[in-house]
Design goal:
heterotrimer, A mainly alpha, B mainly alpha, C alpha+beta, A: mainly alpha, Four Helix Bundle (Hemerythrin (Met), subunit A), 7 helices, about 0% strand, elongated, disordered N terminus, B: mainly alpha, Cytochrome C Oxidase, Chain A
Chain lengths: ~200, ~550, ~350
């Protein structure tokens, strides 16, 4: 008859093995989500590149697109602020964390605003809609897909900010905030690709 | 063989815990327990299996004789669209996710999946997607005109899916159903990877995980890179149909071929998403009934990972007739042929596992053996199809239909049956009846071979797939009649199986902890396992912890 | 278990034999060079896969019998073997060698079929796929016809391969005549090409091989391979403008009037008349064709009348609408079309 304890106390004979440590769930889960999202974006980017110059009618990107430098700077700097927010929380600096989160949300909102302005201009002044031609189709869907991810990220960041203001966020939540920041870095990274494809390669 | 008594001491929670009185419906609707969700997945896919099987039977009646008028052309086109979509998205994927959900945490010694609520969400969103697809029968042309399911085929080639060629809403139901099922699949895959990476019990290094867990890990990774493109393509198609975008609008410069690429970038890895878990079942069941350790564990893991990677680069072998040009065709011929090498390694390793063993032909093993033969044949017809010029003749013919059913039914469904016979005792605490099981097995095998062996031949004689009827002078009549008779026999065997599931639940022999004298961790828990799986978190020293326990004089850990 | 593997190779030798007429679309009865080279390659592939099957299935069957548990066996577990590098290496390397061999052979056939330049003496046909019929245009001869493709036989002495340039007017179709060549998809946003050279005169059947909508199943193809003399006679006859006077057949003359004053002319062309539509098949020489509705219905006066009266009744989902003509007008139009030889 076997000892009941055998299976539970086996392992680590003589302490030879290193302590049993596995990665944090949130990080791995977020990495998976990012892998899936990245595949979705890749398909949209491929479609965009495939259709560059294939529109049967105008307007063309060169005629109507302008470089969204300001929005891009804001979005990319928000990656830095969210990073500061995480490291502040890790050190227990709650005030720094709150401030940096607020900055991140603000910068994200400015980016969204600049996209909205760009779209308003394109639709209203240039008459480019998703129905106009292949450029409109691919442009609005790719930039729109990215913008929708910015919106999701902003909702999550604002929630976190609200929790911070309510004083519910503590140092031990640093890992969770880092998970969220991973998502935000991903959204920023995607923007770099979108920027290069839409405004540099496609123009 | 040692008896299950040896294990009695493992878990202090032998007797069922005094259950509180609970509302059964509420309990199942709101559960976040991986075992309950796993069973929900399985039951849900079994229901869809019956529906999609019924659709297949209607098609086989229509095709049994030439110039038949059993169903209308439109109905036939709807039937094969619904049959394919249902079988892939609402039978194959969920049933495999179901088994994975149930088994993976148990096998790695965890108490649940990493994200239980996400797990429930993934299931319910997939379930909703299936209902949405079938709601098209009522809402496809608006509620007043019932009976308008999608009829675009399961790969829905553009521009047939455009509003002008497919008016009404049935195609939109199809698109949304696939989109939502994709969300569910991605959610489930996130959960699998995270669970496997972060929740293994002490000592369960990657090199000690049961092969089934490895195969689910690779499957889940494939879901990220394969299902996501389909999700993206469905977003584009919806934009086309609702907002007037032009992604696949050939009149506005859009490309029909782009859809084909997007679809098959999903479509081919999808085959591996379905078959890898079946490999996982085989890799657990064959060793136990051969009474031997799996042969070449590292090679099996390596082959799995290799299949995962190569499967991402073979999609255009579905497009040999599109006119991609000689160099692209040659590349995809090569990639497709190369994938047969790791697949071959797997077959040989299973063979070597059997070799020198002491084979016990219980029903799970019978289905596993059928799987080996049928997968071998399906793989070899796959090699024929990978030869692009041969594919110019065979592609889109009934030969292809026979080939992929050999994989999906002959290999995957056989292995799913094996899994049922093997793990049903763990899930319910009762054995499935062996007598009924043998009837099920033999009828299924006879029906399967009548149907799918003979189905190759009309393809060789020039019969394309997806035709609702054919002329008598083509010489396909007799063969199609045989195919249809085989289908009827299969249908009977499936009904016998369903009867067995219900009958044994009430009348089956009690299973005990470990009815098969097996070696992986799930067999150390009571059947069915308690909510928390393991009273004490287990720790393992080798790939077969229960072997070590039963053979303390000669444990596996000495050899790994 | 699975002992039905004899299927493919047996089919190869059996159906390739005398049974041509019984199986008019048999891929193992090639009648043109592309189909022949595929046939040769397929024989190689079939033998290789058959060899693999016999080896593996044989080993497996042997193991199942040899290593089954017998009554009276001891309760001891069999020896546990965890793997063997040499053996595993061998069943990695041997498949790789087989794959390389198969790949090289395949590549040669791909290049030999797809990467050859268009021959100078080729007979050109433009193929346009429609829901649910085929349009065939002969640019060298100025002919347009539908569903029934006439081509010259190509012999070693007088090679005249037929070269198809293909596109689609609506959705994706696929052109497949198994005895002549493999299939090639017919896609709206691109132009594909294929060729074949029937060695013997005869009728070669095929059909659309890519699901294209309600009547995909009846989108048949009939290829008539004719001797050069017969083919040229057919060409000259097709080059004639449509018949426009019908002495002795007042009903046909009346039918022409009905045809020309209805929406028929929006979709159909009859050369030399007001009918110039291109959505439906060219009817200039309809009566010279043996079938209507893309090869799915014999071209008889009775069928024509039924068809004109209500196409959807004969072929549900077809795009031609019923014109709601009176019975007399239906008869008249049918009489007119029957005169268009």
């Amino acid at each position: 008859m076997m000892s009941a304890a055998a299976i539970h106390t086996a392992g680590a004979p003589g302490g030879r093995e290193t302590p049993w440590r596995q990665p944090y769930r949130g990080t791995v889960g977020m990495a998976c989500l990012i892998a899936a999202e990245a595949s979705i974006f890749i398909i949209f980017v491929v479609a965009y590149i495939f259709y560059i110059g294939k529109s049967l009618s105008g307007p063309t990107p060169a005629e109507v697109l302008e470089l969204p430098i300001f929005g891009t700077i804001c979005l990319l700097s928000s990656s830095i602020t969210v990073h500061f927010a995480v490291s502040a929380l890790r050190k227990g600096n709650l005030r720094g964390c709150t401030l940096n989160l607020a900055g991140t949300v603000l910068l994200g909102l400015i980016f969204l605003g600049s996209t909205a302005q760009e779209w308003y201009h394109l639709i209203h002044d240039d008459g480019l809609t998703i129905q106009t031609n292949l450029f409109g189709t691919t442009y609005y869907s790719l930039v729109g897909l990215h913008a929708s991810h910015v919106v999701v990220g902003l909702i999550l960041l604002s929630l976190t900010l609200a929790f911070c203001l309510m004083g519910r966020v503590k140092q031990e939540h640093a890992e969770k905030l880092e998970t969220l920041s991973l998502y935000w870095h991903f959204v920023d990274g995607v923007w770099v690709v979108v920027f290069l494809v839409v405004y540099v390669l496609g123009r | 063989m040692s008896t299950t008594r040896a294990l009695d001491g493992i878990d202090e929670t032998l007797a069922p815990q005094g259950r509180r009185e609970r509302n059964l419906i509420y309990e199942w609707l709101s559960t976040v327990d991986h075992k309950k969700i796993g069973i929900l997945y399985i039951v849900y896919s079994l229901i869809f299996l019956l529906i999609a099987g019924f659709e297949a039977m209607l098609m086989r009646i229509q095709l049994a004789v030439p110039d038949n008028h059993f169903v209308s052309p439109q109905t036939f086109n709807e039937l094969f669209t619904m049959h394919g979509t249902t079988m892939v998205f609402f039978v194959g994927m969920p049933i495999l996710f179901g088994f994975g959900n149930y088994l993976v945490p148990l096998m790695i010694g965890a108490r649940d999946m990493a994200f239980p609520r996400l797990n429930a969400f993934s299931f319910w969103i997939s379930a909703f997607a299936g209902l949405l697809l079938y709601f098209s029968y009522f809402g496809g042309s608006g509620l007043y005109a019932a009976g308008s399911a999608p009829s675009v085929g399961w790969f829905a080639y553009a521009p047939l899916t455009a509003k002008v060629f497919s008016p009404g809403h049935s195609t939109d139901y199809w698109t949304l159903a696939i989109f939502l099922s994709g969300i569910g699949s991605i959610g489930a895959a996130v959960n699998f990877v995270t669970t496997i990476v972060c929740m293994r019990c002490k000592g369960m290094r990657f090199g000690r995980m049961p092969l089934l867990v490895w195969l689910y890990l690779v499957t889940a990774c494939l879901v990220f890179v394969a299902v996501s493109p389909l999700t993206a393509a469905q977003i584009m198609l919806t934009l086309d149909r609702y907002l007037g975008a032009h992604f696949f609008d050939t009149q506005a410069g859009g490309s029909a071929v782009l859809w084909m690429h997007f679809f098959w970038i999903f479509g081919h890895p999808e085959v591996y998403i379905l078959v890898l878990p079946a490999f996982g079942f085989a890799s657990e069941i064959i060793p136990v009934f051969s009474r031997k350790a799996i042969f070449g564990y590292p090679a099996m893991v390596g082959a799995t990972v290799a299949i995962g990677f190569i499967s991402l680069g073979v999609w255009a072998h579905h497009m040999f007739t599109v006119g991609l040009g000689p160099s692209a065709n040659t590349f995809f011929v090569f990639a497709t042929m190369v994938i047969s090498v790791p697949t071959g390694i797997k077959i040989f390793n299973w063979l070597a596992t059997i070799w020198g063993g002491k084979l016990i032909f219980k029903t799970p093993m019978l289905f596993s053996i059928a799987f080996l033969f049928q997968f071998l044949i399906g793989g070899l017809t796959g090699i024929m199809l990978s030869v692009a010029p041969f594919d110019w003749q065979l592609g889109n013919s009934y030969f292809v239909v026979a080939h992929f059913h050999y994989i999906l039914v002959g290999a995957i469904l056989s292995m799913i049956f094996a899994a049922f016979y093997y793990w049903y005792p763990k899930m319910t605490g009762r054995m499935l009846s062996e007598t009924i099981g043998k009837w099920h097995f033999w009828l299924f095998i006879i029906g399967f071979h009548l149907t799918f062996d003979f189905m190759h031949i009309p393809g060789l004689l020039g019969m394309p797939r997806r035709i609702y009827t054919y002329e008598a002078n083509r010489g396909w009549g007799t063969l199609n009649m045989i195919v249809s008779i085989g289908a009827a026999i299969q249908a009977i065997s499936i009904l016998i199986f369903a009867y067995n599931l219900v009958h044994s639940y009430f009348k089956g022999k009690a299973a005990g902890h470990d009815p098969w004298d097996a070696w992986t961790l799930e067999w150390s828990t009571p059947s069915p396992p308690p909510d928390y799986n393991f009273a004490v978190e287990p720790a393992v020293n080798s790939r077969r912890p229960l072997w070590d326990l039963k053979h303390p004089d000669d444990p596996d850990s000495d050899y790994e | 278990m699975a002992r039905h593997w004899w299927v493919a190779p047996c089919a190869a030798s059996f159906f390739a034999g005398e049974a041509f007429a019984e199986y008019p679309a048999n891929i193992f009865a090639p009648a043109a060079t592309p189909a022949h080279s595929i046939f040769d390659l397929s024989m190689l592939v079939l033998s290789v896969t058959l060899g693999i099957f016999l080896t593996v299935a044989g080993l497996l069957t042997y193991a199942l019998i040899r290593f089954r548990q017998r009554p009276g066996d001891s309760n001891e577990e069999p020896p546990q073997i965890y793997g063997s590098d040499q053996i595993e290496l061998s069943w990695t390397v041997i498949p790789i060698l087989i794959v390389v061999m198969l790949f090289l052979t395949t590549a040669r056939v791909i290049l030999g079929t797809q990467a050859i330049p268009k021959p100078k003496n080729a007979m050109n046909v433009t193929v346009v796929g429609h829901q649910f019929w085929w349009e065939f245009r002969y640019p060298q001869y100025g002919i347009v016809t539908a569903n029934e493709l006439h081509v010259p036989v190509s012999t070693a002495a007088h090679p005249e391969p037929t070269y198809l340039t293909m596109t689609s007017a609506d959705v994706v179709h696929s052109f497949w005549v198994p005895r002549l060549a493999g299939k090639t998809d017919v896609i709206p946003d691109r132009v594909n090409t294929m060729w074949f050279n029937p060695h013997k005169p005869g009728l070669y059947l095929g059909q659309c091989a890519q699901y294209c909508g309600a009547q995909h199943a009846t989108m048949l193809i009939r290829v008539y391979a004719q001797t050069p003399a017969q083919f040229m006679a057919w060409v000259r006859q097709q080059q004639q403008p449509a018949q426009q006077s019908f002495p002795g057949d007042p009903l046909a003359a009346e039918g022409e009037q009905v045809f020309m004053h209805n929406a028929c002319i929006n979709c159909h062309t009859i050369a030399g008349t007001a009918a110039t539509g291109r959505d439906g098949p060219d009817l200039t020489h309809l009566a010279s064709r043996q079938t209507i509705a893309s090869g799915s219905i014999p071209n008889t006066p009775a069928n024509l009348r039924k068809w004109i009266e209500d196409p959807s009744a004969m072929r549900p989902g077809t795009l031609m609408p019923a014109m709601h003509l009176s019975q007399h007008d239906v008869d008249a139009v049918a009489a007119y079309l029957t005169e268009l030889r």
